[in-house]
TrEMBL record:
Protein name in the entry: Phosphotriesterase
GO molecular function, one term: zinc ion binding
Keyword check for Hydrolase: yes
Stated family: Belongs to the metallo-dependent hydrolases superfamily. Phosphotriesterase family.
Cofactors demanded by this protein: a divalent metal cation
Lineage: Bacteria, Bacillati, Actinomycetota, Actinomycetes, Kitasatosporales
Cross-referenced InterPro entries: Metal_Hydrolase (IPR032466), Phosphotriesterase (IPR001559)
Signal peptide as annotated in the record: none
Length: 320
């Protein structure tokens, strides 16, 4: 019933975009508009009060670093606001890809529990093919599809399986949320067990897991390993992130790495004293260069890898 097929071109909130036209870096896991306050934290919000600051940050990064694309992984139950994303993209001049799917169980919206895999899959396929909430804007990624703990809960098994089936049907990739970096191998086993090829999967938040062996395991299986909370030193220091990233690069897996900052509350914005969306470019990448990374490697990590992930490519042979 569900045949896997690649997605070309990229699906952005402003319409189709050929990957070859993205010449600058990509932020592979960000949030530009979300509301996670239902989880008990009123600061886990980016709404209309912050839209100007978000837009200004992206515009400045486009001017300074050539930022070409943001992968926005606010999905169902996370306060997704497609109209806001369209405005932010238009006003900043930065292309935005929007996600669909279900975050981890705590944030599943009403009606998710009790639905079977077939029903959940059809919900995603309808949204991917027909657009979100009548806007006509079509998701370009399934994510961040979540679980918490070393293995998904029963409900998370259903939503992750639906994500895999919808990905096979529509050609979209799946980007996961692995709570504090845990559970990545179980996520990958579930998704590939449902028939999704590993190169269509990005396992999230692996820079929060101080286990280079797990990172190598995921990359060797063919999945992307997301170091996507760069700058969140209240969780893990950037020193540790750099050490773990260098270990993965030295193991020969540079083509499996995705990088981003996962800005997920207004306190992370530079206007609020936070590190902002640009921390990757202004702080972390210079340190990676000092450790020996050249321009070609930086381009691989920040542009070619995420574009290959989004379009389903299996090698760097495509004109990216």
């Amino acid at each position: 019933m569900y045949e896997q097929r690649p997605v070309h071109p990229l699906r952005t909130v402003s319409g189709p975009l050929e990957a070859a036209r993205v010449r600058g870096p990509v932020l592979a896991h960000e949030h530009l508009a979300l509301d996670l306050s239902s989880g008990g934290d009123p600061t886990a919000v980016l709404d209309d009060r912050h839209r100007g600051a978000v837009t200004a940050e992206l515009a400045a990064l486009r001017e300074e670093f050539g930022l070409g694309l943001v992968v926005e992984l606010t999905c169902r139950g996370m306060g997704r606001d497609v109209a806001a994303l369209v405005r932010i993209s238009r006003e900043s001049g930065v292309a935005v890809v929007v996600g669909t799917g279900w975050y981890y169980e705590r944030f599943h919206p009403a009606g998710t529990a009790g639905a079977g895999v077939d029903e959940l899959t059809e919900v995603l396929v309808r949204e991917i093919e027909g657009g979100i909430d009548g806007t006509g804007v079509r998701p370009g990624v399934i994510g961040e599809a979540g679980s918490h703990g070393d293995a998904p809960s029963g409900q998370e098994v259903l939503t992750l399986t639906a994500a895999a089936r919808a990905a096979k049907s529509t050609g979209l990739p799946v980007a996961t949320h692995a709570q504090l970096g845990r559970g990545g191998p179980a996520q990958l086993e579930l998704l590939t067990g449902a028939g999704l090829e590993p190169h269509r999967v990005s396992i999230g938040h692996q820079d929060l897991l101080d286990d280079a062996g797990v990172h190598r395991e995921l990359a060797a299986e063919g999945a992307y390993v997301a170091f996507d909370t760069v700058g969140k030193e209240n969780y893990v220091s950037d020193d540790a992130r750099l050490r773990l990233l260098l270990a993965l690069l030295e193991a020969g897996h540079a083509d499996r790495v995705l990088l981003s900052c996962d800005i997920s509350r207004y306190g992370y914005l530079t206007s609020k004293g936070g590190t902002g969306y640009g921390h990757l470019f202004r702080s972390f990448l210079p340190r990676l260069r000092a450790a020996g990374a050249d321009d070609a490697l930086i381009d691989l990590l920040t542009r070619r890898n995420p574009l290959r992930f989004l379009t389903g490519g299996t090698s760097d042979d495509e004109e990216l």
